[in-house]
Amino acid sequence: MFKNFTKLEKSWIYYDIGNSAFTMMVSTLFPIWFDSLADAAGLSNSQYLGYWSYATSVATILVALLGPVCGAIADNKGFKKPMFTTVLFAGAVGCALLGVVPHWLAYLIIYVISKVTYQISLVFYDAMLTDVTTPERMDLVSSQGYAWGYIGSCIPFICALVLYVLGLKGIMPERIASALACILVACWWVGVSVPLLKNYTQKYYVESSAGAIGEAFRRIGATLKRIFKHERKIFYFLIGFFFYIDGVYTIIDEAVAIGKTLGLDTIGLLVILLLTQVVAFAFSTLFGKLSEKYDSVLLISVCIGGYTFVAIFALFMKTLWQFGIMAFVVGMFQGAIQALSRSYYAQIIPAENSGEYFGLYDICGKGAAFFGTTLVGATVLLTNSVNIAVATLAILFALGFIFLRKSASISR
Question: 170's torsion region: left (phi>0), alpha (psi -120 to 50) or beta?
Answer without folding.
Answer: left
